[in-house]
Write a structure and sequence with these properties.
The complex is a heterotetramer of chains A (1044), B (118), C (301) and D (230). Chain A is an all-alpha fold and 1044 residues long. Among the domains of chain A are: 1-127; 467-913 and 923-940, no CATH class. Chain A is 70% helix and 2% strand. Chain A has 41 helices and 7 strands. Chain C is mainly alpha-helical. Chain C has one domain (7-300). The two termini of chain C are 29 Å apart. Chain D is mainly α and 230 residues long. Chain D has one domain. Chain D is globular, with a radius of gyration of 22 Å. Classes of the chains: A mainly alpha (1044), B mainly alpha (118), C mainly alpha (301), D mainly alpha (230). The interface between B and D is large, with 47 and 63 residues. Strand 7 (955-956) of chain A pairs parallel with strand 1 (61-62) of chain C.
Chain lengths: 1044, 118, 301, 230
């Protein structure tokens, strides 16, 4: 191995050498710089290789031939190797990116860049506090120089503000160092740590000064205004270094100092880090300038890592894994985003829509955003999981809650941005991207995925990037050049194939879900054959969702479950985002989903109590420390899952998301995706069962929520003018029923929930396809604009007819089976009042369904639709399959239900159904689906035959042949009664559907925004104020710590 | 003696800070920081001072053998040298910045350079 | 209970009896209403005459498939409802096709006809048909609620969902009737009953006097005949359920005729006394008066 | 006014922190561990009479390298900042006066010589590369004052600066290769304590530092002097 000293020596030698080159030899100077940086990368990569793969021991590097503490020494270990590699790589890529700017400014600028990178390495390597100070000052000065690479005039002011504050910081650092030296007689970090500085006279205070000064380099809230200005105005390539490399180095410096400070100072680090994390994220919310937003986000991420470092007392050996996981995610993503920002002409977030015309750059952006948000399979995801595990085990719940809250806020602005990118109007200007710039950006993308792989490998769990379904989904990224129908065939084949491979593994319950997720998904995909072109982005997203679901049902470990959960969330988010006007809805979907996911994460973490692997099945037998927390765990998990099923209160994302999605996406996200939440609830109730919290039976609370969800979902559905929205609200109501069945906690209740799972899949997928087809042909979703379409689109009418009979539970179709089981189930219900609510919900379903079929297909045909064609074949085909399925399931529900019924005996031995002959019996009643079907069929057929006989000469009349107050109308508009269809109902019951919940969430987000907007007035742009902030920060920390 | 020097040093730091916080003129701020830097340097040197001993240079008066008992702590002296030089570097940089800022706005008022905020 | 082929002729016999009884009863009740209003009223065989006339009419038009199917749905609903419920308690002959399902089947099958009718009327393209349907559905959704609550209450009370078992439990004296064992449920159900009989104050759905509105206006000839058959059949089928659930059922045809008449009379009685509600008024009325009774009956059972 | 008041309050608090440090401070009676090592071993190990120099150049040589780099950076950046954009337009100005011109002619070489003396003897007497370099630069300043329009050869200054730097790093690496570690001065014989040619590479390094510092200051001064006409 080459001594780590060469990192410093090479950079310096090259920097000095540059001075010897003639000013005109720009190319040569640039080459020397790149060569030096490449050499440095080689050195640190070599060390990383040695440590990570060959298990080499850390090396102490002495200078001046004397032992520490008498001479400065450096250390090269795993962390140092990784960090220097990160720094050098960022440096090299930024240098590539900066080619034009650097060539313009010449060798001096190159030298400054080299020295900056060298100094960052120095900070990481050195074990001497004063040496640390020297390197920090080098960074300060180099930053002062590199800021000027920017084309932005304001960079000058920003640089000066930075220098002002740096001066103040360095005063504190120097005073701290000299007193620490006085107290311990050494300048060596390990020496100081060994001499227990804090116990010496004045030692604690000296440490405080050093600590606060180094922490200030992390830009803690509120002492960070100067850094934001730099982020905003500097050249993006420098901001990349400033964010990724400087942040990493400063964090490591703090880490070293914490070694000196010992356990006493860990809470301080945590506190500062956490406040910074949360505050910076809230401050970022109202940002519109991209680079400043990234600046806030950098500060927040650094704060988070600081908080993690402060938790090393409980994280122990896992600290590097977690901290570096978060740090690496942040660094790679942030560097990548800054590089990208250089390609975007405008500085407003919406200007980034320019990237949309460049799919590869778009992919890069998405990668970075997902990394930042800590989504799988990136390192941040693993880190977050481990962090939650440890925090929950030690009962540091407030901390966990704050971290998750901050992460959610962060996801809020990141995904809002992503939405702008994908949905906003792209500027006409072409995005210019030189090969150098592209190299930098894509190197970051590759690094991101590679890190994801490494972290998965190190996690001691399933490496997500080796899981077959996920790989299959990701493979579609490489297949994007294929036409859509090829990809569709591949996708269907893959899903069916996976089902065939795995179906023997499932118990009956899981098998039902597996069939719906995989086979059901494949059927819905048939509709996608209707799409033309390449459909960029559709297949990776859809397959990601399905991969998540496939992994979800197979998961036994809580980690696998959670990872699958996040994957399906992300996949479905991108799917939903594809809709024309779905930007705000996709955002609210992902936010609610992530919020729910965080609750699930917290729930699992609490339940595991630090155990590295936690089997979901053992939720039922929690260990001692977790046992008293069981109701809380239940609550967290239940709410988490309920965000996916859109229970009332957390339902507001659903209508928009489902309604605005594309024609073939709506059935996927409604018919299939919602079942993931139910699956979670099934697992939860199966394992944890009943829990009491403050004397309240939680399943009873669930009953109430479910009943209200059913009622209000249905009620809101009847007042919709938009057909797809109507169906979406209806899903909320239906999920309420299913949840109700689960919460009943008896055999039949669960059976009913399963019945709903199957039924809802079939008819909701069918209805969404049918209505989607109609909307596609007519170009509108407003029902009152349609009417009389039965003549134009009879094939789309049939599924709707069948569908509404099924949904409303009218015999003889399968919906009735659900209702019958429901009534039998509630016979033993413990709580009767919620039943009243759900009774009320029943007939209301009938209302909106009638509206759906009437206002679209019946009534008067409008002039503009006289030439409308039937929906495309590929959209009709799956509907017909569903019709057949529905009829089959109506006649022989036992096909699916019998096995599940038997399986449920395991949990509720009593109250099962009897399956003797064609009749199905319970302890209260009986039901014979075949007989019903035959009786109804025979009566119907007889009467029809009779009518046909007596009325054989019926004459078809024209559209307006109606008695209309003695007039013959001729305009369909005046005769199609469709708008505000249930006006009397609104008068009577409208008070129940005031958008209270929407208002609540809106107020909440508004409050956050306002808070961010007010708080950021703190950064008034005056360099002096920033110095004030820093001093106030010092004093505040000092006082809060109780005077050290 | 050491206390006195140290108190002076601290006082200079505070004076420098006060000047930097209350003067809006950039040049005055730079001067104020120089004062604070000087204060820090004095503090550093004061920490190394030991009553009745001489500078850490071996010559006819202090031989290598009795150095242990005769010289003061050399480390702060080495450190202060570095600190001074770094201070000079930063000051030079700030002056250059001040010049450029003035060139841009024809003003040295720090409160005028607030385009970047929030 | 198993299916036997013999059940079919028996069922048809029931059907025949009930249709004729229904038509006579309907006319009789009309007459009572007219007499209260100091009018002479129609002869009791008027419904039979109308039916024959309508079947005899030769002019017939159609607006489309659903229009054609509407009356079929409607009558299927009525016939099915009647046949899924045992008519005479203890008689194997007149237990009809109740082997196919229990109370829940009957409750949900009520919607079958309403749905088909609404669809058919909808296709006629007449805006008033649609308005009538919205009114009808809105009112029904709330009117059915107290009945559903009451039903559930007595299902809990008797711990069964089988109508036969519920009737059986009420045998052995009047005091065993649900009317006396669970008066709250019966009260709720009887209020609900008013809402589903299309008589004042809940007849705004049809609004027969003022405007030519809704399905009966658009349909004619044999369509109307089918619907008229249903008009005769359906109320009786519903009353049979009420009778079975709350009033001890009927062990023989005379008792059957008598009880059905009395229950029918209740709606006529209220109808001639009260003026008409608008839809939102009736919804509120059910919500305020009937639903709480139903809730209480469930809680107290 | 409020600003002053807040500043005052903050500084009182900071002053409180400093006061605590001050009150808690007790001067050492004995040399501490590190200082003791230096006092005992410097002469024998490194052969440098000036212990501070030994620390600066050798024991904490990395700091010093950084320090030199700080100056290098500052000079580069000052050059970068000030070179940007503006074309130099010499304006006629009043002559600086006979006294200054003549004095400069006399003094400048002497000052330079003194500077060289100071850094060459850095390992023996107080002073060293930085001090010597600063003195050399002050000579340059004098020249600039005497003739503001004088063009220094930027090429020469920068060549000196760079070469000195490269050699400095090279010597450091030689230490790594031939002796105990980076910047170990014992690549050359340490000689007799007190001799000019003693203390191994220390005089050499310090001379390089002196040259470099002088060159850097000079280039900074030259750059700054270009700002005069504003």
């Amino acid at each position: 191995m080459v001594s780590a000293l060469y990192l410093i020596a090479a950079a310096l030698a090259a920097a000095f050498l540059l001075g010897l080159l003639k000013e005109q030899w720009r190319g040569a100077a640039y080459a020397v710089t790149l060569a030096a940086l490449a050499f440095m990368i080689w050195v640190s990569a070599g060390w990383l290789w040695a440590f990570a793969l060959e298990g080499a021991a850390p090396v102490e590097i002495f200078t001046a031939g004397a032992e520490p503490p008498f001479a400065i020494n450096l250390r090269m270990g795993l962390a140092e190797a990784a960090l220097t590699l990160l720094i050098n790589l960022t440096g090299l890529l930024s240098a590539l990116y900066l080619k034009d700017a650097l060539s313009r400014l010449g060798r001096r600028a190159l030298a400054v860049l080299l020295i900056a990178i060298m100094a960052l390495c120095g900070i990481v390597l050195t074990r001497d506090v004063f040496n640390l100070f020297v390197f920090f000052e080098l960074i300060v000065i180099a930053t002062g120089g590199l800021v000027l690479l920017s084309d932005d005039d304001h960079a000058l002011a920003a640089g000066f503000k930075y220098l002002i504050v740096s001066q103040v910081i360095s005063v504190f650092l120097l005073v701290g160092i000299i007193f620490a030296y006085h107290a311990t007689g050494t300048l060596n970090i390990d020496g100081m740590a060994g001499a227990s500085l804090g116990l010496k006279t004045g030692g604690a205070l000296a440490f405080f000064l050093m600590f606060i000064a180094v922490v200030a380099e992390l830009k803690p809230f509120p002492a960070n205004g100067w850094a934001l200005d730099i982020y905003e105005s500097a050249h993006p390539a420098f901001s990349a270094i400033f964010s990724a490399a400087t942040g990493a180095a400063a964090l490591y410096a703090v880490d070293k100092l914490l070694l000196i400070g010992g356990a006493d100072w860990l809470p301080v680090a945590t506190g500062i880090g956490l406040v910074t994390f949360v505050a910076a994220n809230i401050l970022a919310l109202p940002q519109t300038n991209d680079r400043r937003l990234l600046g806030y986000s950098s500060i927040a991420q650094t704060g988070l890592v600081l908080a993690v470092l402060g938790q090393r007392d409980i994280l122990g050996d896992a600290t590097p894994y977690i901290a570096f996981g978060l740090l690496a995610s942040h660094a790679v993503a942030k560097a990548g985003l800054y590089w990208l920002s250089g390609l975007v002409a405008g500085r407003a977030l919406a200007d980034w829509a320019a990237l949309r015309n460049r799919p590869l750059l778009l992919f890069a952006f998405v990668t970075f955003i997902c990394m930042l948000a800590g989504l799988p399979p990136f390192p941040g995801f693993y880190a977050k999981w481990e962090l939650a595990r440890f925090l929950a085990a030690e009962g540091r719940l407030a901390l966990l809650a704050l971290i998750l809250f901050g992460a959610l806020v962060e996801a809020g602005y990141l995904f809002r941005w992503l939405g702008y990118l994908i949905k906003r109007e792209a500027p006409a200007a072409e995005t210019a991207c030189t090969p150098h710039q592209a190299t930098a950006v894509f190197a970051a993308v590759i690094a991101g995925w590679a890190l994801g792989f490494v972290w998965g490998d190190l996690s001691g769990r399933n490496n997500l990037l080796l899981v077959l379904p996920l790989l299959f989904a990701l493979a579609f990224l490489l297949l994007e050049w294929l036409p859509a129908w090829t990809k569709n065939t591949l996708a269907i084949a893959g899903m069916v194939g996976w089902f065939v491979l795995t179906w023997t593994e499932y118990d009956p319950l899981r098998l039902i879900f597996a069939v719906i997720f995989l086979i059901g998904g494949a059927i819905t995909l048939l509709a996608s054959y209707a799409a033309h072109g390449r459909r960029i982005g559709f297949y990776p997203s859809a397959m990601l969702m399905y991969a998540g679901m496939a992994m979800l049902i197979r998961a036994t470990d809580s980690f696998d479950f959670f990872a699958a959960w996040e994957l399906l969330t992300v996949g479905s988010y991108f799917l939903i985002l594809r809709g024309k006007h779905s930007e705000p809805h996709a955002l609210s979907y992902i936010l609610f989903s992530l919020g729910g996911a965080f609750l699930i994460l917290a729930g699992f973490a609490l339940a595991a109590q630090g155990a590295p692997h936690f089997d979901i099945a053992s939720l039922g037998q929690l260990g001692q420390p977790a046992q008293p927390l069981a109701p809380w765990i239940f609550l967290l998990l239940a709410i988490g899952f309920m965000t996916k099923t859109a229970a009332i209160g957390v339902h507001i994302w659903l209508p928009g998301a489902h309604a605005e999605a594309e024609t073939d996406v709506s059935p996927m996200v409604s018919g299939i995706l919602l079942k993931a939440g139910l699956f979670g609830l099934f697992l939860l109730l199966m394992t944890m069962g009943r829990q009491r919290l403050y004397g309240i039976e939680l399943t009873h609370a669930l009953l109430w929520i479910a009943a209200l969800t059913a009622l209000l979902g249905n009620l809101m559905a009847i007042f919709q003018e938009d057909a797809k929205r109507l169906l979406a609200y209806s899903s909320i109501g239906q999920m309420g029923y299913a949840l109700f069945g689960l919460a009943l906690m008896n055999h039949l209740g669960w059976l009913m929930a399963l019945m709903f799972v199957i039924n809802h899949y079939i008819y909701k997928a069918m209805l969404f396809l049918s209505i989607g087809g109609v909307a596609k042909r007519t170009g509108t979703r407003e029902m009152y604009r349609m009417g009389g379409l039965i003549r134009m689109m009879p094939l789309s009418f049939i599924p709707v007819l069948i569908g509404i009979i099924a949904v409303s539970g009218v015999p003889p179709l399968s919906g009735f089976g659900g209702r019958w089981i429901f009534y039998n189930a509630i016979m033993t219900a413990e709580l009767r009042l919620p039943l009243v609510v759900i009774f009320l919900a029943g007939p209301i379903a009938f209302l909106y369904l009638f509206r759906l079929i009437h206002t679209i297909f019946l009534g008067q045909l409008k002039d503009e639709f006289r030439r409308v064609r039937e929906a495309p074949f590929w959209i009709v085909l799956p509907q017909m399959i569903y019709v057949v399925l529905l009829l089959v399931f109506a006649v022989v529900p036992g096909l699916a239900l019998r096995h599940v019924d038997a399986y449920l005996n395991r949990f509720f031995p009593e109250g099962g159904l009897g399956w003797t002959g064609p009749a199905i019996t319970s302890s209260y009643g009986y039901w014979n689906p075949i007989a019903i079907m035959i009786v109804v069929g025979v009566i119907f057929a007889t009467l029809l035959a009779w009518l046909l006989f007596v009325n054989r000469r019926a004459q078809k009349v024209r559209q307006f042949n109606i008695v209309f107050a003695a007039e013959r109308p001729f305009r369909p508009e005046t005769t199609h009664y469709a708008w505000n269809f249930f006006a009397p109902y609104r008068k009577a019951m409208g008070f129940l559907v005031q958008p209270f919940v929407t208002r609540f969430w809106e107020t909440l987000t508004d409050l956050l925004h306002t808070a961010g907007d007010l708080a950021r007035r703190l950064y008034d742009g005056n360099g002096q104020s920033y110095a004030f902030h820093f001093l106030a920060f010092v004093v505040a920390v000092f006082l809060l710590r109780g005077g050290v | 003696m050491a206390h006195l020097a140290m108190a002076t040093g601290f006082l200079l730091i505070l004076v420098g800070f006060y000047g930097a916080l209350t003067n809006r003129n950039i040049l005055r701020m730079i001067v104020a920081f120089s004062i604070a830097d000087t204060g820090v340097n004095i503090v550093i040197v004061a920490v190394g001072y030991m009553r009745g001993r001489s500078a850490p240079i071996l010559d006819s008066t202090v031989s290598a053998a009795d150095a242990l008992a005769r010289i003061i702590d050399p480390v702060p002296q080495a450190l202060v040298l570095t600190a001074i030089v770094i201070g000079v570097g930063v000051t030079a940089l700030m002056l250059a910045y001040a010049y450029k800022l003035y060139e841009k706005k024809r003003s040295l008022d720090i409160a005028k350079f607030t385009e970047l905020k929030w | 209970m198993q299916f036997e082929w013999m059940k079919i002729p028996y069922a048809l016999l029931t059907l025949f009896i009930v249709v004729n009884f229904g038509m006579l009863l309907g006319a009789f009740i009309q007459k009572i209403g007219a007499r209260v209003g100091r009018r002479h009223g129609i002869p009791v065989w008027q419904n039979h005459i109308d039916l024959i006339k309508n079947y005899g009419l030769r002019s017939s038009i159609t607006h489309g498939t659903m229009f054609y199917l509407g009356p079929v749905f409607r009558l299927s609903g009525g016939v099915g409802l009647l046949l899924f419920v045992p008519t005479i308690h203890g008689s194997e002959m007149f237990s009809n096709l109740s082997f196919a399902g229990d109370l829940i089947l009957a409750l949900y099958f009520v919607f079958f006809g309403a749905l088909g009718m609404a669809l058919g009327a909808g296709e006629s393209g007449h805006p008033h048909a649609a308005i009538g349907v919205t009114r009808g559905l809105s009112q029904m959704s709330m009117a059915e609620l107290p009945f559903a609550l009451a039903t559930f209450s007595i299902a809990l009370q008797y711990q069964t969902l089988s109508i036969t078992d519920i009737v059986a439990a009420q045998q052995g004296g009047m005091l065993n009737w649900t009317l006396f064992t669970n008066p709250l449920a019966v009260a709720a159900a009887m209020l609900s009953f008013l809402g589903s009989m299309m008589r004042p104050p809940f007849d705004v759905v049809l609004a027969p006097q003022e405007i030519p509105i809704g399905p009966p206006t658009e349909y004619h000839s044999s369509y109307l005949a089918l619907m008229q058959t249903n008009r005769a059949l359906f109320p009786i089928a519903k009353i049979v359920i009420y009778m079975n659930l709350f009033f001890g059922g009927a062990a023989s045809w005379p008792v059957f005729f008598f009880k059905v008449f009395l229950i029918y009379l209740w709606s006529a009685f209220v109808g001639v006394v009260f003026p008409r509600f608008r839809v939102e008024q009736s919804i509120r009325w059910f919500l305020v008066w009937a639903v709480p009774l139903g809730v209480l009956s469930i809680l107290l059972v | 006014m409020i600003k002053r008041f807040i500043a005052f309050l903050l500084l009182i608090a900071i002053g409180g922190i400093f006061a605590t440090l001050l009150i808690g401070y007790t001067p050492d009676a004995e040399l501490n561990l590190t200082a003791r090592y230096y006092a005992e071993r410097t002469a024998a190990d490194l052969g440098s009479a000036n212990i501070v120099t030994a620390i600066v150049v050798t024991y904490r040589g990395l700091d010093t390298l950084g320090e030199v780099t700080v100056l290098f950076l500052s000079a580069a950046i000052v050059g970068l900042v000030l070179a940007g954009g503006r074309q130099r337009t010499p304006r006629p100005r009043a002559p600086v006066g006979e006294l200054l011109t003549t004095g400069t002619r006399l003094l400048a070489p002497l000052i330079m010589l003194l500077g060289v003396y100071v850094f060459v003897n850095g390992h023996l007497t107080p002073g060293g590369g930085f001090q010597g370099g600063a003195i050399v630069a002050s000579g340059v300043l004098l020249l600039l004052l005497a003739d503001p329009l004088r063009h220094f050869s930027h090429g020469l200054i920068s060549a000196i600066e760079s070469l000195a730097g490269v050699f400095y790093v090279a010597i450091g690496l030689l230490g790594l290769l031939l002796a105990g570690g980076f910047l170990d001065n014992r690549i050359l014989p340490i000689g007799t304590l007190g001799d000019l040619f003693s203390a191994g590479a220390i005089p050499l390094i310090y001379s390089l530092i002196g040259l470099k510092v002088g060159a850097e200051f000079a280039s900074m001064l030259a750059s700054l002097s270009g700002t005069e006409e504003l």
